[in-house]
Specification:
Elements lengths: L2 H27 L7 H16 L2 H8 L4 H10 L4 E9 L16 E10 L4 E12 L1
Antiparallel strand pairs: 1-3, 2-3
């Protein structure tokens, strides 16, 4: 039997496999990313509306306490997303901290809570969301 023929077939199979691998890699790099901004903003709006309608959470915003707010948000947010909440004065810039990633999109929404049943102390709650 001629072993040179089998070597030529093996070389051709390896070459085709490498070529297909390179093509799949190039196509995966150039694949368009899915735009999730609409879904994220819709979910953020739902979460912030829920927080603003809850008297207990409104009191937490007035007291500048994010623990209960974070525990509520973590129950509503998808597990593939990470988040941060910030409570700020109305006239201040409410920015995130160093925990937020620099190499991916961060989505932000806010609500203004102006009063609870006992006091007038306007604050804003800002929700930052990004992928894990």
């Amino acid at each position: 039997m001629d072993k040179k023929g089998w070597l030529k077939v093996l070389e051709a199979v390896i070459a085709i496999t490498l070529l297909i691998g390179v093509l799949v890699y190039i196509m995966s790099i150039n694949a368009p990313k899915k735009d999730i901004s609409g879904d994220v903003y819709e979910k953020e709006k739902f979460i912030l509306d829920t927080v603003s309608k809850n008297d207990s959470l409104r009191n937490d915003i007035m007291a500048n306490n994010t623990y209960n707010i974070n525990s509520t948000v973590v129950k509503m947010i998808p597990t593939t997303w990470d988040f941060e909440t910030k409570i700020c004065e109305l006239d201040s810039i409410c920015s995130g901290d160093s925990r937020m990633p620099l190499n991916q999109d961060v989505f932000s929404s806010e609500i203004v809570v102006t009063t609870n049943k006992t006091s007038y102390n306007p604050r804003k709650l800002r929700l930052f969301v990004w992928g894990k």
